[in-house]
Amino acid sequence: MNANNDQYVLQTRNLSVYYGDFKAVTDVNINIPRNKITAIIGPSGCGKSTLLRAFNRMNELVPGSRVEGEVLFNGQNLYAKDVDPVEVRHRIGMVFQKPNPFPKSIYENVAWGARIHGYRGNMDELVERCLVQAALWDEVKDILHRSGLALSGGQQQRLCIARAIAVQPEVILMDEPASALDPIATLKIEELMQELKKSYTIVIVTHNMQQAARVSDYTAMMMLVDEHSRSGTVIEFDETHKIFTRPSDKRTEDYVTGRFG
Fold it and tell me: Does residue 261 belong to any structural domain of this protein?
């Protein structure tokens, strides 16, 4: 494996994503650094979630979707014919906008995925470790038998993060993970992300510019290709502080300063 792949866990090469005849994302070329938080920002409808889902082949669950170009994961094309999409989603986990715990106990929410993937270790230890990593253990250690649905929204989202890391992925994708949460719960998720990046690479889609500026190391700015298009592309990708202070594209500056979007 070359140094390039050691530095970058995900890379796109002229990536375009289609839903039927509709081209949602056009020619994206970005390198996602390992053990960093990368934010994807941009106005509504420019393909942010579509790009995020291309990283673990979630778009394939939509009938008629297809990709052109490549997504490399540790140097291997995720869309090669011999790659199993289930294995991809095992290695590249996903946390959704709305917390979606299983209608099972808190314990089973964490244990279930690991069990499905054949985990043979001490399940009690795994559940505790993941809940500790998700900054939830102290709040739930005495109620592990209770339904995950009984938790608050912020706790449910942290439970979903614990569930995602229980199958030991390398990458965690987060699609607006705090948009349904109050400011205190949002802060907990942001603090958690900073802790998790020591062990995982995180890619987050967010509409919240302050959040992107606070939590991410790198930022990808997406826009529609032109005013006549409904297809989005990445117009700028750089270290977050540069995107927010010295962007090289005027459209990025207008967006992050609130002049449009």
Answer: no
**CATH number of the domain within which 69 lies:** 3.40.50.300
Q: How far apart (Å, rounded) are the C-alpha atoms in residues 115 and 74?
A: 25
Q: What pTM was computed for the model?
A: 0.93
Quote the number of domains for the chain.
1
DSSP string covering 200-215, please? SEEEEE-S-HHHHHHH
- The amino acid at residue 17 is V
What does the pLDDT look like over 23-73, one tens digit per residue?
A: 999 999 999 999 999 999 999 999 999 999 999 999 998 999 999 999 999
How far does Cα 73 stand from its chain's mean position?
A: 14
List the single range of 3-12, 129-138, 172-181, 202-211 with lowest mean pLDDT. 3-12
Question: Cβ of 231: how many Cβ atoms within 10 Å?
Answer: 19
Look up the domain containing 155 and give its range: 3-256
Q: Which residue has the tokens 């997406």?
A: 222
